[in-house]
């Protein structure tokens, strides 16, 4: 953690955190991780900045009744005013079992104008024992009226060398794919790098041969019930993680710069949906091509 992180956590532990904080920086996962740590510091039973107490474990698992996540719903581009009104309604009540109710708003720049306006009175006259954490990679897109009522803090991503990044990406990939049949860690790594390289080629040239090449390689190298979840995992990570956290940061950056996040997520969703539809007689390559067509159909 950085010195800013330490100061934030200690301020939260002492109960002196501002009632509304904008955490902004280039890494969405870093912001989310810090927000959960702040929630732990605010509600830790032992009043530390977070340990292994029951409250902290619940927060980590997403089951604590006083810590709530708000974000863009599936198939939407904005956080709807209804979501914000529900959050405001919850903020009006006292904490259920913790010391502080915490509302974490991911991608806060996606709050609709109506939703942002609905928040103003609550941010201006906050209830007791309530903290709002607004996470964003683009703080300038928040309404000035929101920014004026919150404390804005820049959060830098952790600095790790390339070897650590590759090891972490491999470890996470291994953990997620160990249960897939017929796919070793070595194969998962090799195929992931190939998917990223071909997607980068597609992003740069819009050559559909690159997409068809992914389907061809995956269908020939592994079983569809492993290939489709692998493709979904790579597409999801491209949409939700920083390029530096991928096995090929350069290729990932090219893809992220060229293909909209919603398009990547749509293709990932199609891949997972097709994996669920697999039958004994299913054509695995056709299902892979169908998922990849979501990328081609999503270009503007």
Uncertain segments of ≥5 residues (pLDDT<50)? none
The share of residues in extended strands comes to 5-15%
The biggest beta sheet, please? 5 strands, parallel
- What is the count of helical runs? 13
Distance between the termini: 39 Å
- Please list the strands of the largest sheet in the order they lie side by side: 2-3-4-1-5
Rg: 21 Å
Order of helices and strands: HEHHEHEHEHEHHHHHHH
User: How would the global form be characterised?
Assistant: elongated
Write down the overall mean pLDDT.
83
Summarize the structure.
57% of the residues lie in helices and 8% in strands.
Structure notes:
With 300 residues, this protein is of the alpha/beta class. It is built from 13 helices and five strands. It has a five-stranded parallel beta sheet with strand order 2-3-4-1-5, with helices on both faces. The model has no long low-confidence stretch (mean pLDDT 83).
């Amino acid at each position: 953690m950085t010195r800013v992180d330490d100061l934030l956590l200690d301020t939260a532990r002492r109960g002196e955190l501002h009632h509304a904080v904008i955490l902004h920086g280039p890494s969405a996962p870093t912001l989310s991780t810090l927000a959960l740590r702040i929630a732990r510091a605010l509600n830790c039973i032992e009043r530390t900045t977070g340990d292994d107490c029951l409250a902290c474990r619940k927060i980590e698992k997403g089951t604590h009744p006083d810590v709530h996540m708000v974000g863009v719903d599936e198939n939407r581009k904005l956080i709807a005013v209804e979501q914000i009104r529900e959050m405001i309604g919850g903020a009006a009540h006292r904490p259920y079992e913790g010391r502080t109710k915490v509302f974490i708003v991911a991608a806060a720049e996606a709050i609709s104008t109506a939703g942002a306006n609905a928040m103003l009175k609550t941010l201006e006259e906050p209830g007791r024992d309530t903290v709002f954490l607004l996470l964003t990679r683009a703080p300038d897109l928040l309404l000035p009226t929101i920014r004026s009522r919150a404390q804005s803090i820049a959060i830098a991503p952790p600095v790790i060398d390339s070897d650590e990044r590759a090891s972490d990406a491999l470890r996470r990939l291994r953990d997620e794919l160990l249960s897939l049949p017929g796919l070793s860690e070595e194969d998962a790594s090799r195929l992931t790098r190939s998917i990223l390289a071909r997607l980068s080629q597609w992003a740069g040239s819009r050559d559909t041969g690159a997409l068809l090449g992914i389907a061809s390689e995956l269908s020939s190298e592994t079983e569809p019930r492993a290939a489709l979840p692998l493709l979904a995992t790579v597409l999801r990570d491209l949409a939700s993680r920083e390029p530096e956290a991928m096995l090929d940061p350069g290729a990932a950056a090219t893809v992220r710069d060229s293909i909209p996040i919603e398009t990547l997520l749509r293709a990932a969703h199609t891949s997972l949906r097709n994996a669920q539809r697999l039958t004994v007689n299913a054509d695995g390559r056709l299902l892979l091509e169908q998922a990849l067509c979501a990328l081609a159909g999503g270009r503007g």
